[in-house]
Task: structure prediction
Amino acid sequence: MTEVSSLTGRLLVATPALADPNFERAVVLLLDHDAEGSLGVVLNRPTPVGVGDILEGWGELAGAPGVVFQGGPVSLDSALGVAVVPGEAAGRSLPLGWRRVHGAIGLVDLETPPELLAAALGSLRVFAGYAGWGPGQLENEVGNGAWYVVDSEPGDVSAPDPARLWRSVLRRQRSELAMIATYPDDPSLN
Result:
């Protein structure tokens, strides 16, 4: 069996060619990627539902906008918390209820009392559902040109203007990808 290089902690940025409406101009943070498959959350799909409306105590910790995000088309009735712990260093103990995914980015156990994490969290986003791929599926999609794979930054998790995230992630790339950020929403209007 071929070994899969982990993309955990990286971003998938939908290419203009990606036709699936679930992922049009999506920016997905990969929370897990291995030979068994991949799991991530779409960072730029806010809903009108406030975090505090569905998860008591977590609303005050959610970054602006303090709404639930649609993490993907799978299991929309489940919630995932993703948070950044600023200044998180290898020698420091991890906050109770937080599991590192990549660098300072980690998953929050939403069953943990929020007050136990309040002092440690720099930003929190709550996602309804997730995006998932079976073994080899994501690699095929990347190979077929559906996704750009780029490095994440901790600020991506809590981007204050999610509607601009697709363009801003592409714009910061030091390659021809930066030009893709100017790709029009509807190329037929050019």
Observations:
- The chain has a mean pLDDT of 90.
- Residues 44 and 165 are 7 Å apart (CA to CA).
- The chain has five helices and ten strands.
- The first helix runs from residue 51 to 54.
